[in-house]
Design brief:
Elements (H helix, E strand, L loop, with lengths): L1 H23 L2 E10 L8 E6 L8 E4 L3 E8 L8 E3 L23 E7 L4 E6 L4 H4 L6 E6 L8 E10 L14 H5 L7 E4 L6 E4 L4 E8 L8 E3 L4 E6 L2 E8 L10 E7 L8 E6 L6 E8 L29 E11 L5 E5 L10 E4 L4 E7 L5 E5 L5 E5 L2 E2 L8 E4 L4 E6 L5 E7 L2 H5 L3 E7 L1
Parallel strand pairs: 1-4, 3-8, 9-12, 11-18, 19-22, 21-29
Antiparallel strand pairs: 1-2, 4-6, 5-7, 7-8, 9-10, 12-16, 13-17, 14-15, 14-16, 17-18, 19-20, 22-27, 23-26, 23-28, 24-25, 24-27, 28-29
This protein binds CU-O-CU linkage and copper (II) ion (CU).
The site of copper (II) ion has 6 residues, from loops.
């Protein structure tokens, strides 16, 4: 009896030990110089990549687990990785000078990511970001729901744009006066997963979860699929409060949406064009080609929604804790500075809030440029635009504040630490448009 028991214990311990080492097996991400073949050039384009891939590998994690990432920096300069949208330990947030030291050339850093929320996220450096992202460092991070739904297909589209020169190299100035005076650096080659106008082949009847991520430095996309209806089921990683049809949704740098798309039964042989409609002149991004095959019957499923996450009512009697005025000034290291309350990072007008109390913030754009404002480590709900009630049926982590527009948001600080808050147009952030929200007990 005693022996049997100790054998059983040994087996259990051994089993636990194994699953433990499995969970701890770090995923390796290596930032390095490499090359990438675009279709327009005879030569390879020098890029910076994670693991030699453009874009970086899609990372899959599971809700409720801890994923360990061993980041090795093989670039000639410091770097870091920020996990955009993930609510994790502040020490793992990847912001040099705020949450960690820069990861020097040849050094590594172990990120331990406790995955609290399922959904579509992404990762990118937070050091010399206007150059490092633009040279290719970015990738998608999917946190799978504990319970998987039977989608026929889960498609991930990382949208980006590149500013390529005739000789196939990346235009090597990253914070030009032109970028700074306007809406940052808009490229000349839009890509999806690094491909120019890729074709995706599907079968009639498929029901697809299509995840769109805007990983561009500055370009704003408004994706449209001609002839196909699509529903938005998640924004910035989280299920929406109420599902709504995709109709000129504005995807600014940092934003993600998950779409529910069903390919109708009798469409074998048909091609659907996906285009961008944000710019005055629409242009093709991709195409969806339907195989001439027997239609399958679409899987039955009900996409998740979140009725009670940070509801607008929560903020009804809450006064505004902070108004950040967004504007340009002369000065700073580029001659043009982008300010929040007239201050340039790191000499910023910071906020600090206690844990657990609902807060209201206004981003007030006094300039005529675009500012997609992002807050690390929280989700917020848009409540008002220009002082008028404009409650969104979803939460976000990045909101585009248009020229002369003001946007009121509500959120609840739930994680301790210092959370960066900035414009996601990389050159604006680089020119000063950054601050922090510190959450204390
Ligand atoms: Cu994509 Cu500071 O973030
Ligand atoms: Cu901006």
């Amino acid at each position: 009896m005693k022996i049997a028991r100790s054998i059983l214990m040994a087996i259990i311990l051994c089993f636990l030990g194994q699953s433990h080492t499995h969970a701890e097996q770090p995923l390796k991400l290596e930032a390095k110089e490499s090359t990438y073949q675009f279709p327009f050039f005879d030569t390879q384009t020098p890029v910076w990549s994670y693991n030699g891939q453009i874009p970086g590998p899609v990372i899959h994690g599971k809700e409720g687990t801890t994923l360990v990432v061993d980041f090795l920096n093989k670039l000639q300069e410091p770097s870091s990785i920020h996990w955009h949208g993930l609510r994790i330990d502040n020490a793992m947030d990847g912001v040099p000078g705020v949450t960690q030291d820069p990861v020097g050339s040849g050094e590594n850093f172990i990120y331990r990511l406790k995955l609290e929320d399922a959904g579509t996220f992404w990762y990118h450096p937070h050091f010399n970001s206007s150059e490092q992202l633009e040279r290719g460092l970015k990738g998608v991070f999917i946190v799978e729901e504990a319970e998987k739904q039977p989608w026929s297909r889960d498609l991930v589209w990382l949208m980006d744009d590149w500013f390529l020169q005739k000789d196939g190299t990346i235009y090597p100035q990253f914070n030009t006066g032109r970028d700074l005076m306007h809406d940052g650096r808009w490229g000349n080659v839009p890509t999806i997963n690094g491909k120019f106008r890729p074709e995706f082949t599907v079968s009639p009847g498929e029901r697809i979860r299509l995840r769109l991520i805007n990983g561009a430095n500055a370009r704003i996309f408004s994706p449209h699929i001609e002839g196909l209806s699509a529903d938005v089921i998640a924004v910035d990683g989280r299920p929406v409060t109420q599902i709504f049809p995709l109709n000129r949704f504005v995807l600014s740098p940092g934003n993600r949406i998950d779409l529910d798309v069903t390919i109708p039964q009798q469409t074998g042989g048909k091609t659907y064009i996906v285009e961008d409609r944000f710019s005055r002149k629409a242009f093709q991004l991709a195409s969806i080609v339907v195989k001439s095959a027997e239609p399958i019957s679409p899987p039955e499923l009900t996409p998740l929604t979140e009725a009670s996450f940070i509801p607008a009512q929560m903020f009804e009697n809450v006064s505004v804790a902070k108004t950040w005025d967004l504007n340009a000034i002369r000065g700073g290291k580029y001659g043009i500075g982008w300010t929040m309350n007239m201050k340039l990072w790191p000499d910023a007008d910071k906020a600090d809030y206690p844990l657990g109390l609902p807060r209201k913030i206004i981003f007030k754009n006094s300039s005529s440029r675009l500012h997609p404002m992002h807050i690390h480590g929280v989700f917020f709900r848009v409540l008002e635009r220009n002082g008028q009630k404009a409650v969104e049926s979803f939460t976000r982590d990045t909101v585009l504040v248009g020229p002369r527009e003001s946007v009121t948001i509500g959120f609840v600080p739930e994680h301790r630490g210092i959370w960066l808050t900035h414009c996601h147009i990389q050159s604006h952030a680089e020119a000063g448009m950054m601050t922090t929200i510190e959450v204390k007990k």
